[in-house]
Amino acid sequence: MRRVILIVLPLGIASGVRRLRSRWALARARSAGSPELNDNGLALPTRVKHRPSHASATDDAVAPGSPTAVADPAAQAVEHPARGILIAVAVAACVSAPLLVGLDAPAGLRFGTMLALFCLAPGAALIPLLRGRTELGLVFGVSLGATVVLAQSMLWLDAWEPRLFLYGLSLVCLVSLLAAGRVRAVRESVPAEREPLVGRAQRSPLGDGVAIVDEGPGIKLLPQTRSATLVTRARSTVARIPRVAALPVVLLTAAMVTWAISLTAAHLNRMAGLGLLDALSPTYFVALGLLLIGFSATVTRTEVDSRLLALYTLCLLLLLYGTIPLLYEEPRFTWSYKHFGVVELISATGEAHPTFDIYNNWPAFFAANAWLGSATGLRPVAYAAGSQLFFGLANAAGVLFALRGLTGDKKLLWTATFLFLLGNWVQPTEEDLAPQAFAFVLSLIVLGICLRCRRACPDSAARPNQPLFARLDGLLSKVARGTPPYDPLPAAPLGARAGLLIGGLCFLAIVISHQLTPIMVIISVSALWVVTRRLPLWIPAAMIAMEAWWLALAWPFLAKHFSLFSPGLPGAAPRGRELHAALPGAFLSFYAPAVVVALVALLALIGAVRRLRAGYRDLVPACLVVAGPPVAAVQTYGGIALYRAFLFALPWLAFFGAAAFQKGRSRAGSGRARFLLLGAVTLALAASLLIAVFGQDLGNRVTTDEVRAEMWVEQHAPLASSIVHGDEGPTFLTRRYPSVGLEDALLGREEFRGHLLGSGDVPRLESLFKGLRPGFDLFLVLSRRQDDYARLNGMVPAGSIPRLVQALDGATAFRLVYRRPTAWVFEYIRRPETRPTGSGIAVTPCRLNCE
Fold first, then answer.
1. I need a surface site. Which of 126, 383, 423, 613 has the fewest CB within 10 A?
2. What is the pLDDT of residue 574?
3. 3-state class (DSSP) for residue 827
4. How many CB atoms lie within 10 A of CB 157?
5. Cβ neighbours for 341, distance < 8 A, ≥ 6 positions apart
6. Helix/strand/coil (H, E, C) string of 787-807?
7. What gap in Å lies between CA 494 and CA 500, rounded to an integer?
């Protein structure tokens, strides 16, 4: 009966809403000045005046430098089909997700529909209700923020009901989407002023099934089939594609075919000092080169098509972030696996545990993943490998959304987005399924809303009447060459009040998900207030209050384990790395991130100078660039705060960098020079990025054997046991992770580095284990990947870990309890006199398990 209700209920709701929409649309059409309708809904003959073409969207345009954003008519015309596809996917997800979950469909189908629901439906439903414009970045941000806040609400209310909340979310979004769709259709069918269009078809408020044709003496209603409408739209879409796009399309197709061929020719057993780059076929680099050349040729043409640039950006994401999931069997980066255990713990218990770790004090992102896993039946380890591709797409959409607050130039926008992806070495090397990746996407949306949904004010308010800014403005005006070219901004996606609501929702999701990102956002928004004064002062004040509230809730744990202020030098290099003993070529991957940063900074400097000399005074992006480093100065955040500061500055650095390739005023016919320059720069950036991202994969690639070994020891180890690794492993990936402890790795200790490990290290190992947590069980986890990681960084010679495994297999103090072809688990056997009596811990001897 429950499944029958799940099938019938959405269909009944959809039918009822459709009828209400039709009646409401008829009433709205009568009251909004549309052609007068009779009782049967037919249009009566009327004569109305059409709005002059020269006063359409450009009537709202303002002089250069004005804060008012205007719409680009061409861009809006292209946006409608994409918006329709977005709404259609959201509606389909609202209908299919609860049905598939209720029917216990295969996990893959449920996961796809649930992901579409969480990422599109809330934003696509809420934005039209707030009279906003549907943009992909905004929809992504609002949907992710709403989903995370709703997941956190289940924890707050102590009502962990994933399926019930899923059905409620789907129902609310479906009703809102259907209602908003009819309102939008009525608005589009009723222009402000009309004139007779003799011999041309007008869109009817009755829908796509009827065409209104004005033939002079009267209006004639012609039946119009849906197939004819689709054919007409398809023909108009094809007609809008410029013929000059033939070569870029060929290059794009060739790049993707070559990339697909390269995946079949990759040999992972050849990885060495350059990581995955040693294992990839040369065709991979050919594919990337074709892609970069094609993009450079496309964006430097006189006429550009945003859809073609979007395809190039999507294909770049596939090459950078889609290669790893297709080649590796498990998610890489051992430090990402500790997030999986938090997700499984929340999914199993339905609550957060603030006394366990810092992740349970910022649990919203993990709760959303627990909601996804509970509804689909998938564990985080099953889909985490694709998270970098997902967040890469979200980042690209977020950067486009935020940068539209600075420019409406399509070439500049897409070039900046492309450079952002080529300069982003931080997330591909530090984050996988991580809350910081999620929070960064929402930070782009919050800053974009602040830039684009600002309140209207005189231009004089943009530059406060203070001596400091007056001097700075005077200095910039001396360097600038006159008035900058006219660059109208795209229309504001939301009104002021709607922007406040959406921005508050997204910032709340950031606050309850991550520790450092809210501080970065608060400083950036405060910088916007200082520079522009277009934001009320109470907005950054409210953000500070919200962050202080959440810090107060987490303070009992923070005061015991962390410090709010932790100044120090940046750096996250592994302890014990010896460059002189590292594998050949490994030093390139160690310093490639610095090369990427230097190239991006140099490009940004050149672009900033060019824009300044052209008359632009880009104080806003300049302040956003320097907003992050002060945070890194007072809180190292484990040595990676400076990397996070670079990531937050990267969108604005990419904006300046893209300006370095803008066409100058006096240089006619410079398209070829800009193409060559952009191609050379992107090739240099891509080469450095590949080394930074893939160069250490010999030690970063986690195997299935190691994952299974870690899961086995967490699931079978007695309560309060501790685990020792040869080097950092994929720990804490089950819900039992709070019941086991983690000790320092062997290779982090000097006595186990710098020589070939073997039987001579067994006494040292036994002495070490004897002093670790007396009275508790200890386990040692070793793997082939640890050996690869150690020889990559020059810690020990090759083959040390396998030799240590052979030596331990014959030792009396260690017993092999789990074995895989490339992973081993040993249990330390304490002597009877070392185990205190009356410990109250029930110990179950482990038996050898070979899978």
1. 613
2. 67
3. strand
4. 10
5. 714, 732, 733, 734, 735, 736, 737
6. HHHHHHCCCCCCCHHHHHHHH
7. 9
- Name which residue leads in pLDDT, 215 or 741: 741
Give pLDDT, residue 33. Answer: 46
Mean pLDDT (whole number) for 490-504: 91
> Measured between alpha carbons, how far is 461 from 749 in angstroms, rounded to an integer?
59
pLDDT tens track for 134-155: 899 999 999 999 999 999 999 9
SS3 456: coil
Number of H helices, E strands in the chain: 32, 9
Q: How many CB atoms lie within 10 A of CB 119?
A: 22
**What does each C-alpha distance from 345 to 153, 158, 373, 436, 438 come to in angstroms?**
17, 15, 12, 20, 20
Strands (E) in 648-749, as ranges, are 721-725, 740-742
Phi/psi of residue 819, nearest 5 degrees: -145, 135
pLDDT digit string, tens, across residues 304-316 = 888 899 999 999 9
Quick: pLDDT tens for 504-551: 999 999 999 999 899 999 999 998 888 777 788 999 999 999 999 999
3-state helix, strand, coil in the chain (%, to 5): 65, 5, 30
3-state secondary structure 167-202: HHHHHHHHHHHHHHHHHHHHHHHCCCCECCCECCEE
Q: Say if residues 94 and 173 touch (Cβ distance below 8 Å).
A: yes
- Quote the Cα angle for 106-110-112, to 5°: 120
- Give the DSSP per-residue string, 738-805: GGEEEPPPGGGSGGGSSS--SGGGHHHHHHHHHTSSTTS-EEEEEEHHHHHHHHHTTSS-TTHHHHHH
Percent of the chain with pLDDT over 90: 51
How far does CA 429 lie from the centroid of its chain? 14
Task: Please count the other Cβ atoms lying within 10 Å of the Cβ belonging to residue 644.
Answer: 24
| Secondary structure of residue 212 in the 3-state scheme | strand
Q: Which secondary-structure segment (H or E) carries 210?
A: strand 210-214
C-alpha to C-alpha distance for 374 and 319, rounded to whole angstroms: 31
Distances (CA, A) of 845 to 520, 720, 765: 50, 15, 21
CA distances from 412 to 18, 303, 416, 654, 655 (A): 42, 13, 6, 10, 7
- And the tokens for 297? 């040729």
